[in-house]
Amino acid sequence: MRFKYNIKSVFRSKSFLFWNMAFPIVMGIIFHIAFGDLGFDIGLIPVAVVVGGDLSPIAYAFYSALPSLGVVMDATVMEQTAATALLHAREISGVFVLGDGIELFTTGGGIAVSILETVANEFMAVSGAVGNIAAVNPGAIPAAIAAIESYTTSITPFSQIGANVLQNYFYVMLALGCFMGVHMGLSSAEQIQPDMSLVGTRVSVAAVPKLKLFFENLFAGVLMQFLMSIVTVAFYTFVLNVNFGPRLGLVLLACFVASAMSVALGMLIASIVKGKITIKRTLVMAFTNVFMIAAGMMSIAIRNTIRDFAPILDRINPVALISDTFVTLAIRENLELYIQNMIIMGVLVLVFAVISGVIMARRTYENI
């Protein structure tokens, strides 16, 4: 009976009706009306490659791997001046500069830039592996370089299937819809905290362990947020004809984990910050804007800067985690990044839940 009451309590909140379900659906309709008839494909991404005098092993490996990368990008070797002019004229999407390492220069954002960043990041990761090999066994370096030269990026199938650009916007909107579970977390916490509602005051004096109340409301919030995500996916699929492909099950699994992380984050904010629900909701909106900006949704340059100076912050940014998890299903053949992000989100769920649960269970109120 108490679990049913928790579900009904969550439904009493008006904010979730917009942020958790109507928001991604309305935005999906807007995208469909505005861009639905375009139906264009990414195709090969035009890029320039500038080769320096002395190439490091990883830069030489990248240059040697250009033929295998031809399924993703149309690379042309040229001088620095010509490449810069073409980039500023937006006739190409990026410039790879090879020398001591691999540098990528782009203008603006978009899915094409994200793909180029993925390629560059993968090679930089390989560079670190080569460095480790050199430190342990220098004699194995030639074999490692030879293996890298036959490298094929994990996003090859993306260009092969000619995925529609518009579909990626639906992935992003679905990700934002899942993150709006922070509002569901606030609504769930509202039912058990005396400083947030009269319902919380009555529940606090009941002969029920606070920790049990916390996890019941957490589970209720996650379940409802997940159901809202399913409704959004169903609307995109059957009404807007968005094809999520054979990985629909993985999309729904990501929805569940992302919903759990978002709801737990909302309850964490509700437990740490004291005051009325309006104050906490305002703070949640502020955090949402910060997370979205840091995830590069306003400018990819901001996210690149964060990656350079504080990569750990980028890896635990909830919006970036959820968005990258969905998009990687569309543009990557292997699931390595998907699994990594799912593990990180799972760990964050546990951290958020434990901290907020302990705080709510130990907090006392003088005037109840």
Whole-number mean pLDDT: 76
Into how many domains do the coordinates divide?
2
The low-confidence parts are: 1-7, 155-164
- Cα Rg: 24 Å
Count of DSSP helices? 17
Helix-strand makeup class: mainly alpha
Helix content: 55-70%
Q: Give a quick account of the main beta sheet: strands, pairing sense, barrel closure.
A: 4 strands, mixed
Q: H/E element string?
A: HHEHEHEEHHHHHHHHHHHHH
Distance between the termini: 25 Å
Which strand-content bin applies to the residues? 5-15%
Count of DSSP strands: 4
The backbone outline, from C-alpha atoms, is: elongated
Strands of the widest sheet, in order across it, are 2-1-3-4
Walk me through the structure:
- The structure is a single chain.
- The protein is mostly helical and 368 residues long.
- The chain has 2 domains: 234 residues; 115 residues, D-Maltodextrin-Binding Protein, domain 2.
- It has a 4-stranded mixed sheet with strand order 2-1-3-4, with helices on both faces.
- The protein is elongated.
In short:
This protein is mainly α and 368 residues long. The chain is 68% helix and 6% strand.
